[in-house]
From TrEMBL:
Keyword terms of this UniProt record: ATP-binding, Nucleotide-binding, Transport
Protein name: Daunorubicin resistance protein DrrA family ABC transporter ATP-binding protein
Similarity comment: Belongs to the ABC transporter superfamily. Drug exporter-1 (DrugE1) (TC 3.A.1.105) family.
Pfam families reported in the protein's UniProt record: ABC_tran, DrrA1-3_C
PANTHER family listed in its UniProt record: ABC TRANSPORTER, LINEARMYCIN RESISTANCE ATP-BINDING PROTEIN LNRL
GO CC, any one term: plasma membrane
GO biological process: daunorubicin transport; doxorubicin transport
Keyword Chloroplast annotated: no
Limits of the ABC transporter domain: 11-248
Membrane association type: Peripheral membrane protein
Amino acid sequence: MAAVQQAATALEAVELVKTYRTGRNKSPVTALRGLSFAAARGTVFGLLGPNGAGKSTTVKILSTLAAADSGTARVAGLDVAAHPERVRRAIGLVAQKPGTDPMATATENLLLAGRLHGMPRRDARARAGELVRRFGLADAADRLVRTYSGGMARKLDIALGLMHRPQVLFLDEPTTGLDPQARTELWHEITRLAGEERMTVLLTTHYLDEADHLADRLAIVDHGTVVATGTPEELKSGLRGDAVHIELAEADGRAQAVLQRVPELREITVDGRTARGRTDDGARALPPVLAALEEAGVAVTSATLARPSLDDVYLRHTGHSIGATGAAGATGATGAEGSKGLDASQGLGASQGLEATK
Ligand SMILES: Nc1ncnc2c1ncn2[C@@H]1O[C@H](COP(=O)(O)OP(=O)(O)OP(=O)(O)O)[C@@H](O)[C@H]1O
Ligand SMILES: [Mg+2]
């Protein structure tokens, strides 16, 4: 039974804690505070969170580049602390920062990666050819990487991670900085890897649409811990009713109190010029909301209603909007209620043996 579970759960992090020392007389930075999740084999698992949430730190621990202070992690059934060499053979890592040599060609970069993984020369040549074709780089394969566009370089980064046919692929923000077309192409390839090749992909992203589109399951990470986990649909359906989104003409300290007096509206957060809330029936709630703001002299530039999005899920669990936070800003207001229903431990149990497909 244990063996079956091991095979089905390709990635597992349990209560990971990691603190970075930042020098003498400086206070250490706690990057992870008990982060847990599990991902089934052949699925795309997304870690979604703002700058500084702890996504790259998690990837570094799972890929053996950093050691956790406490907690355990298993990759392809192997404990990362006990078997780092075997874990390294089972994984491909595409780090947040490029890993290619700009003064070499794509083919040279790929062959070097093959050699580092101990691949026989002929096998490496064949695999390099296959990968440049698959990523649309065949025509540019013998050009220096220095001359590549951002999208081409990122594709090559991913091809490098795939050279030795890993079981598990880590993609740390694979599409940041890419244009929409390059992003769509990469999305397609990531979906194909999990679907056709049964690869397990751990993807980190700040993009809600990316997590929504790609991830079979995802964990929302904030301040080094998982605040919600589930499929994108589960997370969205955990929210009742419509989201109300109001843009104010200018930031106004009175908005929060005014909106709190409108009985139709709940879960109100005001962040600069943006006010958000939830309501059972958006069409009924909007007139009293606008009337209350007008009566108080708070000028509104736009008001919209929307079905729950992952952004709303994010806001609900973290108290701040993902777009509005930077590394330091992540300490923002916590207006939202605690997570309900979909917490980390539940997600962990639910994904044991799960073979989710989109
Ligand atoms: N080597 C390091 N030394 C000190 N602090 C670090 C180090 N690496 C990360 N941190 C800190 O740990 C926290 C988590 O960083 P991490 O890189 O894991 O976040 P992230 O979610 O990947 O963010 P981003 O979206 O910006 O890539 C941050 O506060 C960061 O400043
Ligand atoms: Mg990062």
